[in-house]
Amino acid sequence: MPTLFLFIVVPVYHSLKPVSSTSFAFCPFHLISWTHRILTRLLTSLLYIIVHHFFPM
Questions:
Q1: What is the 3 state secondary structure string of 3-57?
Q2: At what angle do helices 28-54 and 4-15 cross, to 10 degrees?
Q3: What is the dihedral sign for C-alpha 15, 18, 24, 30?
Q4: CA dihedral 26, 34, 17, 6 (to 10 degrees)
Q5: Is residue 5 a contact partner of residue 42, using CB atoms and an 8 Å limit?
Q6: Which keywords appear in this protein's UniProt record, sorted alphabetically (predicted)?
Q7: Does pLDDT of 6 surpass 70?
Q8: DSSP summary character for residue 1
């Protein structure tokens, strides 16, 4: 069974894709897209943890 750390960090790590520093710094779309991707993964992981904590199967 994966640890809590792996469950949260691995999806976030895989969501990160190398982006050139110039396009990342000067294009707000990249920043918004990257932030949205990470927040979605974190919220999904958090929801999973809460559900399985309060409603164990």
A1: CHHHHHHHHHHHHCCCCCHHHHHHCHHHHHHHHHHHHHHHHHHHHHHHHHHHCCC
A2: 160
A3: negative
A4: 150
A5: no
A6: Acyltransferase, Transferase
A7: no
A8: -
pTM score of the predicted model: 0.46
Q: What is the distance between the alpha carbons of residues 48 and 54, in angstroms, rounded to a whole number? A: 10
In the chain the first and final C-alpha atoms are separated, in Å, by 14
Of 30, 36, 38, which Cα lies nearest the Cα of 13?
38
Q: Give the model confidence (pLDDT) of 9-45 as tens digits.
A: 555 444 455 555 555 555 677 778 888 889 999 999 9
Chain center to CA of 34:
9
Q: Which amino acid is at 44?
A: T
